[in-house]
């Protein structure tokens, strides 16, 4: 296992040395998706605003237990969209990069960082949209908001590890892409993205407490909506991130040169 | 000093049964070597006990029928496949001309594609800028270089791919078939470019079915048969037996 982790670090070091490659490719990927459109990547901002506004309008009336529901939903949606994109895109990553993996000696981490960068660029537009909603909802920034910035950093650190795990899963178990897509569709409603948990029992309690996504949403959301630091959620997320990285490093070290044979 | 040293190299990989909800089928269609089955596990012996050495000035022609392991050996030398047995020592910068159109983006301009392809090849921005004018000039694309790649004819696209791919000064060059591009006139120019690269490179390893080309270009021949070394000899001796 030590050797696998050492090999994984060496792959990641090479990936960082080739940062110009994944930075350039990620930029091209985003540009290509919007090249013919008038608004270009601004569509990412419009998409987020439209999505968030519809849900805020629909759910605010039915569930107004949260004082600032707009901020609650906007922050939750921002984190959820990022996580959801990472998981679904990562699953087919090696299949999409098959020609590169079979034709070049680029380290696997280049593909992982390319997808991370793409998701970060998309999320940056959503962050701008989230800031607009927070501004309109009358939220006033406080020093506690710095913990939300720390939360974003933690989520960002988790992204490459998650991508590595789900990319290997998708390569060795191709059916998983359909399972992950469906779980994420369902997960949006089983995670407190739009609904508010207010201490009731039953299914909602189970979906709230036993759902790891809840804690990643909370570390970003609670400093903004409640002006407090969710220490327990930070601890849970920190542990999850460390576990993800450990698993990712072992997988990367052990299978980075094997994956070419299963594509 | 540029050299290649291959010692008892073998490449064996498991033909994985992909974990799937569908009916069981082999995960990959293996392309060469031999398939063996033991204890319900299928493995592909792609290369077995290969040993040979090359020094500066050597031009090695790889021959063998389809599935003999030529491309696999090239990919082992390049580092895409890690040998499961033995060791490979490559001294010198290795460049490969396998899939020259890999990575070209249809929405990006020709100029941007040169940058992207250069980055993928591991060139620095300075190296790309230094080579840019020469690549554009060789490709004969003129003003088209600043138009999207998707507006190019097949011939233009092939000329650009060839120009970028061959704009290198390799110490060790690996080729899966001799490459060419464009119409008859450009083919002639491409041929001269390939000969120049071949002259400059310290070592060339070229896999091809074109025996005439190998006899003209190479000084040594390595013949593979189902992943095993069948012959490694000077091209003159091969001419006698081949």
TrEMBL record, chain A:
GO cellular component, as recorded: plasma membrane
Top-level taxon of origin: Bacteria
Keyword Membrane applies: yes
Record's keyword annotation contains Chloroplast: no
Mode of membrane association: Multi-pass membrane protein
Subcellular location, record wording: Cell membrane
GO terms under biological process: lipopolysaccharide transport; polysaccharide transport
Pfam families: ABC2_membrane
Keyword line: Cell membrane, Membrane, Polysaccharide transport, Sugar transport, Transmembrane, Transmembrane helix, Transport
Transmembrane segments: 42-62, 68-87, 123-140, 146-171, 178-197, 233-253
InterPro entries given in the database record: ABC2_TM
Main location: membrane
Domain ABC-2 type transporter transmembrane: 24-222
GO MF terms held by the record: ABC-type transporter activity
UniProt record similarity statement: Belongs to the ABC-2 integral membrane protein family.
Protein name: ABC transporter permease
Organism: Oryzicola mucosus
Automatic annotation (TrEMBL), chain B:
Gene3D superfamilies with a match to the protein in the record: P-loop containing nucleotide triphosphate hydrolases
GO function term, MF aspect, one: ATP hydrolysis activity
Entry keyword ATP-binding: yes
InterPro entries: AAA+_ATPase, ABC_transporter-like_ATP-bd, ABC_transporter-like_CS, ABC_transpr_TagH-like, Bact_Polysacc_Export_ATP-bd, P-loop_NTPase
Protein keywords: ATP-binding, Nucleotide-binding, Transport
Domain ABC transporter, chain residue ranges per copy: 23-241
Keyword Nucleotide-binding: yes
Annotated transmembrane regions: none
GO CC term, one of those recorded: membrane
Family membership noted in the UniProt record: Belongs to the ABC transporter superfamily.
Name the record gives this protein: ABC transporter ATP-binding protein
Source organism of this protein record: Oryzicola mucosus
Species classification: Bacteria, Pseudomonadati, Pseudomonadota, Alphaproteobacteria, Hyphomicrobiales
